[in-house]
DUF1631 domain-containing protein
Amino acid sequence: MNEANESSNIVNLSQRLDPSSGRGGDLLNAVRNIASRRLQQYVGNMFEHVDDALFDLAEKAENNAAQMHYFDGMREVRKRRPVIERGFLAQVSRELNDFASGTRSSAGSSGTSTPVPGSVELSLVADNELEESLALTSMIGKNETRLSRELFAVNQRLSVICGGTRIEDATNPVGPALLAQAFRQAMRELSADMRVKLIIYKLFDRYVMASLEELYQETNAELMRAGVLPQLRHEVVRNTSGGTGTAAGSAAASAVDVSAPLPTDDSEASAELLQTLRTLFSARRAHPTVPLSAMTAGPLPTANELIGALSVLQSQAAMVPMAPVPAAATMSTLDIAEQVLHLKEQLFTQLGSLRGQRPGQIATIDEDTIDLVGMLFEFILEDRNLPPQMQVLLARLQIPYLKAAILDRKLFAHRQHPARRLLDGLADAAKSWSEESDRDGRLHDTIKAIVERLLQEFDDDMTIFDRLSAELQQFQETNRRRAELAEQRVAESTRGREKLEQARRRAAREILNRLGDHSVPPLVHGVLSRAWANYLVLTILRKGEESNEFREALRFVDAFIASTKPARTPEARRELLQLLPGIERALRKGLANVAFQDADIEKLLAQLHIYYRQQLGEAPPAPEQAQLVDAAPAPLPIPESIQPLTETIADLEDEAAHAEPAEEAMPADVRDELERVKALRPGTWLEFSSEEGHFERAKLSWVSPMSGRYLFVNRRGLKVADYSPYELAVVMAEARARVLASNALFDRAMDAIVDRLSHEETRPGEPSP
């Protein structure tokens, strides 16, 4: 930010006070009291919301480990809150004391550790500290920009109190930079996970930084009442050097104008990227493709002329119908490059029509902007994260975005620029699109409508990007709520099936382990593998594996198997007779619980009575009765949700043959993909392809805590597939699935453009348009 016009009618620097004098000291004490009172209120309010925020995150955590991090953080914050609050307020008080005594840090001039305006010093620090620094950088830059007017007034009035010494955002003891650093210092008392700390920093931004406007307004009002610069007004003089020599040219300064100062940015990363782009474009211009002597003399097109020519081209583009594109349609790099050059040629032709003479060249900053926007849309048409249909739709926005970049150079500097947010939002929505998930065409038509409106309605009013972003966000929010309900139902259904399958397998294992090498009659085996196995499953589902009911059900299995041992001695017969009443009682109870009819229970018990009479040697069975005993009982009616476990037992007996290979035995490519699979988190989008060439995009919705399987749903929340980690790794190794990028389209494009420019070879000159 360039603050100017520090003449006497804006800031009267002849009005100076000595901070050590009585009046100066009183004024600083007044500032100290305002700051202490308000900051204590703000930071207290912030901590009142920490518990709720961490609890909400714990409930939504993707696994138990993450959940415990948040719960541990809650406990630690409750314990350390008083120390952190005192430490923060004490640090602010020390800054004010140093300021009053004249021993304050002068970061703005001496380069000490105090952060420069809108930034936090980044050095070779641990990843956690870097992450913390970036969070503070973003917070400081955003609030210094938002509060620029009030902060400017406070700076100027404190400067008067300090005898005319220049006070800047970074050296203001109650400015966002020093307050953020004071809170960071106080946060060193908190030994919590970095995820927890970052949440607290967000809350500090929301409840403390967001309230600073009130603090500055009260401070300014108090100092004005005391007669310190009562007529102060705030004025920002914009940079007028743009190469066009007109006011319009100044407003249209390019996003890669090397001569212009860096704008206050959303983050240090964006500012660094912008500076890199400027350097690369400057180096590009150091090797001109056309000798200066070959260029046509004449005035350079002004920004107004560029906007006018683009508006004509935009209206022509708006009249071209959007033809449907087959899903398999792709565009070669050569085709894309020709389209970019074609727009440039069209622009020169249109400029010639408007001014009656074709310009030989345009300002380098404008040409850089044209090339940069061209590269952005070339990236969009090559970006595999977007389906081909969506690539073609978004590519039609090249002219409106070139206009926006010429009108407002902050498009490439600010992550939160409305035009940038709209393009990122459209790309994010488009990423999830597939023909299967958008059968009604609502998403395709919504994106198409936004593209058409920009082509038809965008003149020079940048607020259209905000309006369209709000409409897109509302559409996305409505669909998100619907999808979440469907997704929740799919997850609950899957969770229920897994619980049932886990219970079936546990019941089957218990029966198999107890049977061991015992040879039991078909009648007994049938009861265990059908009726009683189902009872075990229901008991696990209703009561749990640690319940007394489950333990009693397992004791019945032991007793039932023991009852099949030959009873050849009086002692063995006595033991069998002691077992039988308990076996019958347990069977009646268990079979009734799995909805057997009384007649079926009596039929089964009758068969068992015959068998046990034979075991006890009481009467030889009749031939037809012996046949009943030796045969397995006929299948009995059982609940639809609980099927006999014969197949489950068979699967378990053959489980080793179908087990997934150990990780060290996997092929190298599968092992590598397995590491990527393990790093996937819910919310990640993948594209799956079938042998028939069908493509489907699906989001990782849920990772089962029981089986570890990955559940994927489409944008409507409907199930697409589920895989074990090994199965998914195999699919990815066979190139039948790939992970889609999760970062914003604009960021990906800027990184790709920097990489391209960095490796761009110097080519022989080509004729200029």
The chain has 27 helices and five strands. The radius of gyration is 37 Å. Residues 463-515 form the longest helix (53 residues).
